[in-house]
């Protein structure tokens, strides 16, 4: 006790106790803040999932089933992940009135918050591809345009056209144009494989290669046309045929006109 009293009377005892008290308070505050933040995050996620469930029941369950189990006219959504929902709903493809036709891009029905809630609800049903974050979509920094162009021509050009303008498929289907599509939605399409499109997993095309493809698509979108009318950039064969038909038609018209003038 005498030794302890001696330490208490030491001139450094006061500052040391103050430092210890501040450290204890700071640590306690940090732990409490982290706990509160984590709890709030869980509550926010639960609220978002519940909101998404209500939106789903009102706008999606008539086709996809009350528990997203699917039906004869629409597939199951269990395991498709948040990325698939964000792509389909964020591009306006869903909801759609006629499930027998190909879903096309159009003005979306739900806003960003409602789309995020729907995605959170579907993601809560079973694991699936997640929505890529901003840090995963920095194609300007992490992408290589030349590599992306080669990858696009090898994997995508047979459907989407060598310039990303889209093209016809079998059985009345088509591959949509990639011009004007958000990078996030391009990435989501590659990892979810909507409709006739195959899934390009990270083993098939790495995340860095996906960013390179997006960078090339955006470069093609912004590329100015220095050679006159683009005619949709649908390819040299079609463009040449159009020029040949118009040129031949013009020559025939001139020949007919000269013949009538000669009479």
TrEMBL record:
It is a multi-pass membrane protein. Residues 1-32 form the signal peptide. Keywords: Cell membrane, Electron transport, Heme, Iron, Membrane, Metal-binding, Repeat, Respiratory chain, Signal, Translocase, Transmembrane, Transmembrane helix, Transport. The chain crosses the membrane at residues 241-260. Pfam families: Cytochrom_C (PF00034), Cytochrome_CBB3 (PF13442). SUPFAM superfamilies: Cytochrome c. The keyword Glycoprotein does not apply. The keyword Lipid metabolism does not apply. One of its GO terms (cellular component) is plasma membrane. Heme c 1 binds at residues 60, 63-64. Its main location: membrane. Its EC number is 7.1.1.8. It is found in: Cell membrane. It catalyses: a quinol + 2 Fe(III)-[cytochrome c](out) = a quinone + 2 Fe(II)-[cytochrome c](out) + 2 H(+)(out). Heme c 2 binds at residues 156, 159-160. This is Cytochrome bc1 complex cytochrome c subunit.
